Amino acid sequence: MSSSGKIAGPVQALINEFTKLPTVGPKTAARLVFHLLNRPRHEAQALAEAILGVKDKVRFCSTCFSLTELDPCDICSDERRDTHCICVVAEAKDIYAIERSDAFNGRYHVLGGLISPMDGIGIEQLRVKELIARIGAECPSEIILATNPNAEGEATALYLSRLLHSLSVTVTRLAYGLPIGADLDYADEVTLAKAVEGRQRL
Amino acid sequence: MSSSGKIAGPVQALINEFTKLPTVGPKTAARLVFHLLNRPRHEAQALAEAILGVKDKVRFCSTCFSLTELDPCDICSDERRDTHCICVVAEAKDIYAIERSDAFNGRYHVLGGLISPMDGIGIEQLRVKELIARIGAECPSEIILATNPNAEGEATALYLSRLLHSLSVTVTRLAYGLPIGADLDYADEVTLAKAVEGRQRL
């Protein structure tokens, strides 16, 4: 459309870059650009520098493969954390979700993905060898499988639980059921079935 | 919360910067950061450079006060555009919305805001003097007031229509009514009232 040529070049360039981000469509991108245009330059510069900083300063923890500025990461180097329990997650961001819950005080292991034959991701692309090596070296008593409750997460958890069966470690997974604040009426049938199946004695 | 200290510094720094943008909450910000971490460095660099480019290369058009890399802007310097009609908008981004409709071939004038006593924005903060000077210099035959159909937009349009009354120029405003694809049943009563009021002969 000829009219898009009317948008100032640098404005369109930034709209294009923002649109490459997840959850950002062209309208949101334009809104972000006009916001930045209305803010002082140092704010835009702080954002630009933070973007480069995250690419240049963040690396994988050599123990748990979470993202960190210093290796080993804060969690792996924290003496107060329980070394007997390793929580296995798909991605580093899952760590932050679990940390926010304040319900876990052990350490983590980031697989770097989930088994997904459709995307050509098999077990050899995941950090499973590293997990087994850690279990051998650290001798934890429990491995919590905290993969997402979807097809890929379930497949990965099932595979790992079978693989770890031979090792002398308890393997658990996160509970499934109704989310707090939910309404039975609106719960989907699979969740409800899981909630009935996993019912707890009071 | 102590756990937030577990997020690698540069990751948290970028989450903080993203959260300053409109429509971006902490969860979306985290998602954007992890997306960038998974992309090649040159993509992150393109985004960072586009952010600085928009601050360093974009200026106001000295005629219409839209955003432009070259002054006068593409629209003001386009010989094929109708010089007899000026469309008055609150913000430069409104120009792009109208351009996308392909329904207007005149020129624009950006007020730089709307009258809003609550925010301390009076008529003297808007580019009204500049509009009157343009009307004197360019002698347009029509001024379209294309402010948003809300309290501030209406107040500004009313003020401008009275102010321009003494000049020999036709003042119009955008039509109000049902949006295309709407359902009478779901239309709010004010819109419906405007649609009845502005009904057209077939």
Task: Note the topology.
2 copies of one chain form a homodimer.
Chain A lengths: L8 H11 L6 H13 L2 H17 L1 E2 L6 E2 L16 E5 L2 H10 L5 E4 L17 H11 L3 E4 L5 H14 L5 E4 L15 H9 L5
Main interface pair? A-B, 61 and 60 residues
**So how many helices of chain A?**
7
- Oligomerization status of the protein chains: homodimer
> Outline of chain A, from the CA principal axes?
globular
**Major beta sheet, strand line-up of chain A:** 4-3-5-6
Strand content of chain A: 5-15%
CATH class of the largest domain in chain A: Alpha Beta
Question: What does this molecule look like?
Answer:
Two copies of one chain form a homodimer. By secondary structure, chain A is α/β, with parallel strands linked by helices. The first copy, chain A, is 42% helix and 10% strand. The first copy, chain A, has two domains: 9-57, Helicase, Ruva Protein, domain 3; 63-201, Dna Topoisomerase Vi A Subunit, Chain: A, domain 2. Chain A is built from seven helices and six strands; from the N terminus they run αααβββαβαβαβα. The first copy, chain A, has helices at 9-19, 26-38, 41-57, 92-101, 128-138, 151-164, 189-197, and strands spanning 59-60, 67-68, 85-89, 107-110, 142-145, 170-173. In chain A, helix 1 packs across helix 2. In chain A, the strands form two sheets. A four-stranded parallel sheet of chain A has the order 4-3-5-6. Chains A and B meet through helix 1, helix 2, helix 3, strand 2 and helix 4 of A and helix 1, helix 2, helix 3, strand 2 and helix 4 of B.
